[in-house]
Amino acid sequence: MVDHFDLNREVVSTAMSHLDRFLGVYNGTVDKNLFQLLAMTCLYLSIKLNEYKHLLIPGSKSSMDTILQLSRGFFTLKEMEQMEYEVL
Questions:
Q1: Helix (H/G/I), strand (E/B), else coil: 84
Q2: pTM of the predicted structure, to 2 decimals
Q3: 1-51: per-residue pLDDT in tens?
Q4: Gap between the Cα atoms of 76 and 31, Å rounded
């Protein structure tokens, strides 16, 4: 995704840092679906904090909507917003 949208490589390292820090303090079980949602959310946060441009694909209204569409509807906006809140 970073290459496709021509994003700064620092976005990936920042996203991985967010992911690692969250998992370091999370007490629950992380299954495949939760991990995917968490990784997408961390990437979104990193883009939001470190990039000047928005990710937009045809039919999307925002960067978060773009990421949700790229997940092929597997997660809802509410789930991603809740995960963003938990990470922050």
A1: helix
A2: 0.80
A3: 677 777 778 888 999 999 999 999 999 999 999 999 999 899 889 888 887
A4: 17
